[in-house]
Amino acid sequence: KVQGRLKLCTRSIMFEPQDVMQPILKFPFRDMDVSPCAEIFDEESNELYLSFDCNTVVEMKERNVDHPYTHRVLANSSVYSTKVIFSLVHSKIHDFLQAIAPLWSLSHKKSVLNKIDEECFLAPVLEPRHTDVFDASLLVDFRERPLYTKCKLVDRIVPLLKFPGAMMLTNLRFADPVESMSRDVASSRVYFQPAQINNIGDPVLNFEYAKVVGLHKRRHMLKQCGLEVLLDDRQSFFYSFRSMQDRDEIYATMLQVNQTLQQNCTREMLFKWQHRQVSNFEYLSFLNDQAGRTTNDLTQYPVFPWVIADYKTDRLDLTDPHTFRDLSKPVGALNADRLAYFQQRFHNMPSGMEAEGLPPPFLYGTHYSTPGYVLFYLVRMAPEYMLCLQNGKFDAPDRLFRSCLTNHADLKELIPAFYDTDSPHVCEWLQNTRNLDLGTTQTLARVGDVDLPPWADSAHDFVEKHREALECDYVSEHLHEWIDLIFGYKQQGAEALAANNLFYYLSYEGAVNLEMVTDPVDRCSFEAQIQEFGQTPKLLFQSPHPARSQVGMDVSLAPMDVATSPPVVPSVSTRLTSEEDLPEVVEQPPVASSSSSSSWGFKRPTLSSTFSGLTKNVSGFKASLRRRCMERSSWGWTFDYTTAAAMWDESLPHFLHSKYTRYKTTTTSTTDQRVDIVERSHA
Fold first, then answer.
1. How confident is the model at residue 539 (pLDDT cuts 50, 70, 90)?
2. Per-residue pLDDT tens for 602-654?
3. Positions of the region Disordered (predicted)?
């Protein structure tokens, strides 16, 4: 017998043994031909056991080590049996089987379900477990009183995961402000009550409001519904609310005690930076925080500049300008040949066809900060995130971060770990201290510690020299140019195009309001774009950022609300065939609801409006189709020369939103959600 806890998930049954030397076992429902049942194996005791036959089992975290998951086939095995038996100690088998039945049936439907259909089928099972009733027995101080009759439903956001629950505030509204500040603030608390879906860990998270040193409205999944709370012990908690109204209500209530939390001190920090009262690292950390970047959300991870260009010499000369990258250009524009390719592709893209479902033209289809890029650097320090992102596997060894001497042909900027000398994990992300099995490259080289440049004596020295480079005079003189690209006026619009800094439109804040998107297919595609391809930081400056030496120069700050910008599209190519021979047709725009439009003017007609348009304006559609066929030669879609086929490889995922592909059914893999039946058992 092996003692442990049995956990019921939406797609599987998990068994976590008490002995950490034993692997965690996952039994997928799809590999169970028959639904689990209750059986009696001892006629004398008549004890009921939970039993099922499973063809495969997934093993993970053996010896408490994060390693690629092992998929063991039990069917037709001479060593392992497909029969699995559990003895439930505290729960009734009848209740357990009753909870399993709909989940097993969902995994054995004849048709393959996409993410949208799966969520619809799971809603009756999961929604009753989301409660907005606060358990008053969780209060730490008997003097506390809840401020709301019902909790606010939220998700606690951590990297790659979200934990549903409810938030409650206590003792924050007082009749006597003097009394509230002198006596009751210490007992005022913020409570996060986890939903019954995930009942692992502490039953409730709470912290005193007196420990809050920062409170920031955030966006999450392109929605203005996030709130991040910073504590004096450097902890931070990121919550995503069901609506912006709920978030704003909690935000306003918390500000009643401490009004200083909402002050925008960007000008004050700029003054300190120019007078050398704060370092470049501290100023960039502040700008990332103001722009909504947080370590709790890998889609909005803090972004820092790649500053060093010399990774080959034995000595790093910080007085030589050739040691550094040109901070006035984005990474994609540093190589002239690659930039010429991006520019050619941009001008060959169809423009002015947003109403037909095509996105505005862009230079770069990938971003400089994505969840994949962050975990590319942090795979040794946080392997569990890579396993979660890669479905139980590490990335291919040849694609892992294994050397600082390799010039990667992408657009990545850096993460704070390259410069944070005060971090307790200053070396862990560069060294394979956990002895992870990261695989072997095609040259038969084992992937272990990161290969450092000759000028770095150790991993700690590597980070220290990066920090010295970030704080040196050359970078201080040119850092404002990089700030203009990432946080400033060259981030979007015509200035971004002129600076060769224009990214795919959905990466910008305000491009689409997911709260107004009612079409589930559109919503799913937008969320996939956000999760995979990254987001641009919030706009902070609307005019050129002053150099560090330009003390007293004024700068125009962007408004605190969402900043939007019209798309930048090239003029219609003169190579197009004249349209004078086409019949003159007055084309009516598709009847698209506000839920399918964005500030970019990019409208995606719904299914009903598409067929309506086809019925009413057949001639107009044919004329449009004829024009598109004539334009096709200038779109860059004919692959008749060397390496031309790769021209659109980077951009293909972004044409997911075209109305000619948006109705295809796709299957999206999601992480299992745990149902709250967690049972101590014997296997």
1. very high
2. 333 333 333 344 333 434 434 443 444 444 333 333 333 334 333 333 433 33
3. 568-601
CA distance linking residue 572 with residue 574, whole number of Å:
6
Domain with CATH 1.10.1540.10 in the chain: 275-533
Tokens encoding 390? 């890669």
Sequence letter at residue 632: R
- Domain at 2-123+621-627: CATH architecture: Roll (2.30)
Q: Token pair 């909504």 is at which residue?
A: 292
Burial environment of residue 422 by CB neighbours within 10 A (0 to 12, 13 to 18, 19 or more)? exposed
The residues, any chain, with a CB within 8 Å of residue 515's CB and separated by 6 or more, are 223, 224, 225, 243, 244
Contacts of 95 (CB under 8 A, 6+ apart): 677
Both tokens assigned to 599: 């500030």
Confidence of residue 188 (pLDDT cuts 50, 70, 90): confident
Which residue spans of the chain are classified as CATH 2.30.29.30? 130-263
**CA separation for the pair 168, 549 (Å, rounded):** 47
Tell me the longest C-alpha to C-alpha distance in the chain: 93
Q: Which CATH number fits domain 130-263: 3.10.310.40, 2.30.29.30, 3.40.50.1820, 2.20.25.160?
A: 2.30.29.30
Q: Tokens 């990161």 — which residue?
A: 450
> CA end-to-end span of the chain, whole Å?
6
CA distance 564 to 508: 8
Closest CA to 58 of 28, 20, 100, 22: 28
pTM value? 0.79
d(CA 474, CA 624): 53
Distance CA 569, CA 602 (A): 12
Residue-wise pLDDT for 33-59, tens only, equals 999 999 988 777 788 999 999 999 999
How far apart CA 603 and CA 512 sit, in angstroms, is 10
CA dist 596 → 555, 620, 648 (Å): 35, 22, 26
